[in-house]
Amino acid sequence: MAKVAMAREAFFALRQEIARIEGSLPARLDMPADKARADAGGEYLPTGAARLDEVLGGGLPRAALTEIHGRQSRDAGAVADFALALAALGRKGDEQPCPILWIATGEALHEAGQPYAPGLLHRFALQPSDLLLASARKTEDALWIAEEAAGLSALSAVLLEVRGVSTRLDLTATRRLHHRTRTAGRPLYLLRQSGEPEPTAAPVRLIVAPAPAGERRTVSGALAGSLGPPAFTVTVSRSRTSIPATLTLEWNRDEHSFRERQAGAAAGRGQDAGAVVPLSSGRTHPADTARPGLAHRRSA
User: What is the pLDDT of residues 113-123, one digit of tens each?
Assistant: First the structure.
């Protein structure tokens, strides 16, 4: 039995090394319990949401390329918030945390806006000096900056935000990013905005969208009519365990961790309840309810 266990662990280590070199995702293989515990506390970053950590096999990789995908332009804020929360979570417990580098193309910044310093401090406890912003004109410029930054140990994390589909961001380019990130021992979060998922070397891909906010919790229960912490709908599209899952997560800014929200905690908040503005003076028709469209139709 001892020989079988040793052979199994050696085989698993070999598969992981091959996958690391090739930048591909190894097939699912159950790890020995002792290695799983070591990985969960060392190579992997627990998010605080127990079911998400279980699906990911212990948490997000601390030194790897992780893809965070937003399918629509209006999801850009949620994707950026989620990535910044992960970066802030990774700095938790560091006596002298290193800054975070956010790289974005000009197109992405013009569409979704630039980081807001008071919001970073209020939601993630990040000072203005904790975040470095690099704006690139083209995707290839952003990739060059990201590849150089991915090899620096003086950064706690690198965020690369790209909008739409780009032929420059292919499997070869993401393999280089993943390799440099593994060597430096720091995470790189690839924010893909407004596009369908494409092949990349990222071992983990999360599809993120905003979720309706729940009610604020107090010592005496939920506060009716209030807005709780930011919430995200997170779908695990790719992971080392190959287990798909969809969860609703809330970010706890005080504890710097995520927690899964139970079903029904935000019932009714996802639907329009009626008019969103008061009636006009002297008129009897209420205002139209909010619509999910992003642009007005062109008039004839």
Answer: 788 888 889 88
